[in-house]
Amino acid sequence: MSTSPLFTPFQLGPLTLPNRFVMPAMQRGMCEGGAPTQALAEYYARRAEGGCSLIIGESAAIDHPSATVQPTAAWLTEKTADAWKTCVDAVGEAGGAMLLQLWHEGAMRSDGDALSPSGLAYPGKESGRAATLDELADIREGFVRSAKVAQQVGAAGVEVHAAHGYMLDQFLWAGSNRRTDGYGGDDIAHRARFPAEIVAAIRDACGPDFVIALRLSQWKEVDYEARIAETPAELATLVTILRDAGVDVLHASTRRFWEPQWAGDTRNLAGWAKALGDMPVITVGSVGLDTDVMDTFTQDAEPGARVAEAIEDLERMIEAGECDLVAVGRALIGDPDFVKKVEARDHGAIRTFRRADLGQLEWDLSVLEEAQQAQG
Ligand SMILES: Cc1cc2nc3c(=O)[nH]c(=O)nc-3n(C[C@H](O)[C@H](O)[C@H](O)COP(=O)(O)O)c2cc1C
Predict the structure, then answer these.
(1) Domains and CATH numbers, the chain
(2) 251 lines ligand 1 (CB under 6 A)
């Protein structure tokens, strides 16, 4: 028996998780016509079998035509429900629980027809147009319909994707949300309004025992230095609004989990969110590896292993009350038994993730590539 705090149970709403490990949402290009294939179901189940207690499905477009035009994207609709049920059942049989991630790409959609808060992917980059209030109401209902499909197929809950520069993060970020109708502008409470309305509508439709996670990040794929909350006071306002709307757990996405959020304090974004929101949080970012996810996507460097140091840091963070759960992305792609091997303290046996493990991602990265060039 491990004595590590990472291998103690955690109560997340109605779910009793046997340990603290979560697999975060990762697009794998294993869907056909928006529906997960059998191979994707087996891939998820294999990570649950390897000891990961909570699996979050890859970002799935919500039931609204504006959600994405990415050809290999997953969708969560009545049409793809059976395929998602296969995934949820397979994970359940392997001893895990599953949340499905709800996603709308907003102005990251690159075909000129995007809907978003202000028609901006980032300051200076126009993409499509601002959604009207009626369109926002339709999109909110699309989130709810997809959440209900998740509930119907037996998922324990959903994760609302409000991170990394996609639609709901475009709302949270002042740089991409210049609305003047109470849903945007310089006040974080206004920018949080639409994501909070979506969470509240899902809570109303799916009831109290349906887990709602919400993923947020300061950084965007299109701007690593971006901030949705410039100060702890702004973060406090944001997390309180989200918690009161019905979020059970915040997934605070960082590129490297060991980096402090603000100078003069060692806590990362998850640590701050937990302290300010008094609610469960998931930390994430390069667990087990020495390079971050964006370097994996945009550079040639192969990551190296960084396991013992990470585990020591994470154990300290859990003991200090700075996080509750830990998401492991690429390292779990690299080795489905990562969690079991950590539990056995057999770090040397862990197979390190390689960039080639991702295969060929058929993804239109044009908005991202333009932003990367602008960032230098
Ligand atoms: C191939 C790949 C696909 C990803 N797709 C998504 C996604 O669909 N939704 C999301 O919120 N994050 C996505 N991410 C980000 C991961 O969830 C995670 O935050 C990131 O990889 C950092 O964790 P890691 O350093 O442990 O890999 C993706 C990452 C990778 C490597």
Answers:
(1) 5-375 (3.20.20.70)
(2) no
Q: Residue 81 class from Cβ within 10 Å (0-12 exposed, 13-18 middle, 19+ buried)? A: middle
DSSP for 6-68, written as a single string: GGS-EEETTEEESSSEEEPP---S-EETTEE-HHHHHHHHHHHHTT-SEEEPPPEE-SSTTS-
Residue nearest to atom 26 of ligand 1 (CA): 329
Mean pLDDT in consecutive groups of 10 residues from the start of the chain, 376 residues: 92 97 97 97 98 98 97 96 98 98 96 96 96 98 99 98 98 98 98 98 98 98 96 98 98 98 97 98 98 87 94 98 98 98 97 91 77 74
Which residue is closest in CA terms to ligand 1's atom 10? 25
| Residue 80, amino acid | T
Query: Model pTM?
Result: 0.98
Sign of the Cα pseudo-torsion (226, 331, 103, 53, in order): negative
For the Cβ of 253 lying below 6 angstroms from any atom of ligand 1, the answer is yes
